[in-house]
Amino acid sequence: MSSTHADSDRSGSHAHPANRLAGETSPYLLQHTHNPVDWFPWGPEALERAKAENRPIFLSIGYSACHWCHVMERESFENPDIARIMNAHFVNIKVDREERPDLDQIYMNAVQAMTGRGGWPMSVFLTPDLKPFYGGTYFPPTDSRGMPGFPRVLLSVNRAWEERQDEIKQSAAEMTDRLHEMAAVARGGSADSLVVDHLDRASRALVKTFDALNGGFGHAPKFPHPMDLRVLLRQAERTGDAQARHAAVHTLHKMARGGIYDHLGGGFARYSTDDRWLAPHFEKMLYDNALLTSTYLEALQLSGEPYFGQVALETLNYVLGRMTAPEGGFYSTEDADSEGEEGKFYVWSLGEVLGLLGEERGKTFAYVYDVSPPGNWEGRNILNLPRTIAQAAQVLSRDETELNAELAASRAVLLAAREKRIPPAKDTKVLVSWNGLMIAALAPAGRLLKEPRYLDAARRAAGFILDRMRADDGRLLHTYKDGRATLNAYLDDYACLIDGLTRLYEATGEPRWIEAALDLARVMIDEFVDPEHGGFFFTGKSHEVLITRQKDLFDNATPSGNGMAASALVRLAAITGRDDLDRTGREAIAAVETVFENAPTAAGQSLLALDFAVAPGRELAVVAGSDPREFDQVLEAVHARFLPRAVVAPAAPGTVESLARVVPLLENRPPIGDRATLYYCEGRTCRQPVAGLDEAAKLLAGLDAGKGPAS
Fold first, then answer.
1. How far is CA 29 from CA 14, 97, 286, in A?
2. How far is the C-alpha of 98 from the C-alpha of 287, rounded, in Å?
3. Tens-digit pLDDT profile for residues 660-701
4. Which helix (H) or strand (E) holds 607?
5. Side-chain-facing half-sphere of 214: CA atoms under 13 Å
6. CA distances from 393 to 322, 366, 383, 656 (A)
């Protein structure tokens, strides 16, 4: 994305001089630089002005790929008459939720409490001391479909502030008290009494809401729910639950065949507007593609279905091709819109397909990918697979392998033609948390899919963050854009990066990554832990003081910060033997016990941490011999299996002695006969080590769900 506006449609008339947002690096904020609204970024200047003038704050929170955020900008924030009302009566603050998830979390909780719903754009009115008193999401420019027009909202709020200020302040104080109560919910059970029953109850609840026809959970709009799918995959592996397995596998098939998946370029859009995954809002988010890649990889490990590996491979290739910065970090999002139209970059007419592929091949492609003269979405066609390629081959009386090859060639032709279109805008800021999720996907993918370039990409991203996104005192910074890293990192930044670094170590055996994970874990615990009730606050103790200090206990589109911290710590502890990390991780799981009991499907990431924490420990140490390729092959064999409750402790050539100082699983474990050697232990009992790929493969083949190797 350019440094000002995403595309020509967003630039406004440019008749208005640049406002205070011109000095920001967020592409979302920069898109509003030439609005006639007198926008402020969140900061001392705006907050002090509101207090000095006793004016309420209008806080608008959105993000770059948010379609309705841009609609509200075009309709209201570029409208001089509406801007005059805003400027006359309010201090107007624009926030990028991806830069300031702390503010988004607090005020979204307030909006949901006030209205019963939430979403973006978020529009919330605050007292000068930052307490919320009225809010909503998108407001139209005039009264429409029962919704008040934005000018009516602005004038009503201003009149209420002038006439009933004491009443508003009292209401705002009560709402802030409610936010404090919500922040205090994490007072769960004991870290010593974690039970597996929560996993069983959550799995039953998920299966109950499973859409047996289309996959997924509930009705439109449908979100992918990767954490919940991973809970079901573990339930299937742990208990043999066929319903859990079917719900996960069927959903993954349906999503990958739907229009939410980009069949030409790879990668998933954020969610589907319909029940059958056909029509997404077309924005692509880094976090979705990271989390879904990890889920498809685990489904491949569990089921052995090559299709899941193909989806993961195509998704990662999309990220490497379109979402990777020259320095190695990964960009945040791609927009839904191009040339001012949602989805224009992605959709097709039948004439275009036939013109590019020719009559015969074009008709075949159109049949397989649901391309028709009337179209399947607003007169155009979103590519999707109503039936599998195997089913299509049968109907067309074609050899499946031959048809697959033809379709691959056809997709390449259409992709090349699509690349000539004006692409959607990209938000090129690099966020630590989302990069951590992508590193955690790339590292095992490099081994499972036997693609070293994925390991290289994970290394580059991890090195970039560790080298370029830390303050002088070693603490992480949240966001990087235009050569500058800024803003204190949040809990999920630390937790996701620790998890990504740990998994990168497990895939490579390189000391830097596990050492960095341990160092960041120390900082995370010091900055974010709640010593009184357990669990973690979302903001660090060094962070700007806000109206409340919240705990992020519920998964949204991304894993909860508390659940991610718990997951990262119990895994890191299992590798490094650090009982203190294990205890803190378990306390973070226990802090969510109330959520497990009342809303078990709202805490998938914490359930994943629980699943790991209550299982008997399984440890696989892989020590390199003189042949680095054999070491790689043994690690590939290890990562080919679905072992969600195991940790891998590899030592790359020449590192076993130095690593043993931080990874006790490697102590006194030399390579046997100078061959790559696999040591396997479970429940504090170790088996005879084996040397070489063939013997390692035999040992791994004997690992069954919940059991050690076959004797």
1. 15, 10, 19
2. 11
3. 999 999 999 999 999 999 999 998 789 999 999 999 999 999
4. helix 604-613
5. 19
6. 32, 13, 17, 52
